Amino acid sequence: MNDYVSYIDTDSCYILVEDFILNNLKKKNKWLNMSEKKKLSYVKRIADNIIVDINNRTFNEVQMKDYNSSVDDFKIEFGREIIAKTALFVKKKKYACWVIDDDGSPVDKLKIMGLEVIRSDSSEAVRIRLRKVMEMIMKNFPDDEIRKTVTTYKNELKNVLPEEIAANIGVNHIKKYIIDGKPKKGTPWHVKGVANYRMLLKTYKLENAYEDISEGMKAKVIYVKKNKFGIESITFNRWVKEFNKDIQIDYDLMIDKFFLKKIGFLLNPMNKMFILNDNEKEEVLDAFFK
Fold first, then answer.
1. Which residue, 194, 209, 246, 249, is most buried by CB atoms nearer than 10 A?
2. pLDDT digits (tens, 9 = 90+) for 257-275
């Protein structure tokens, strides 16, 4: 017997119905050439039969036998929730599905459960592109097309404004970590950024020209390249153009941490990290021949 359970949790179970059909169908081309509408109808029929079997066994074998309860008007019942064309299970309670039927209604959407790939800490510019790449991965776009899209998005992100690439993070415990204007050992990068921001405003005599970062505020945080101040991050509300004289934003590091690594989080379980590796090789070659 084959195991067709792809993922199971406390109150959910994902079953590979297509694999079951293909393994039990003599003429596989009949299924492969079938319309999507007809395939969906077959999947629903099989799912409904599974549900009837599960609910009967749950009542007869668990509720009545194991718990000695014959109350038949209070049953634990499972039902069909979604039908997905593809699903990516990264780890327990962290997965994504390309849903085409939700509770009996036709849809075309991604269901994301527990995955922190598209989080509020990512900028809007990054989130939009992450979601597009995620859709391409889930919808089985060719690897080469995904790779080209990632390359295009990387180049686009290198040209956005500081506010558009910066991470969005709530700033807390400023007084705990910043003593006499300097961050102590172990200070989180975004809180260090507050100290660096204040120091730069003071250095450029701009303390009254730009808003300070206060406790509990949702601010923007960015990595910067090596500089004469020896700082690595800056936390701000509105980017201070005067900083550009001595500070360069590390776009490559921001893209790597908040864009490429999150894509890799999806590609790794699929053994497709080569998409990102090829991406890097192509850029090196492009730079060599220019």
1. 194
2. 999 998 998 899 889 999 9
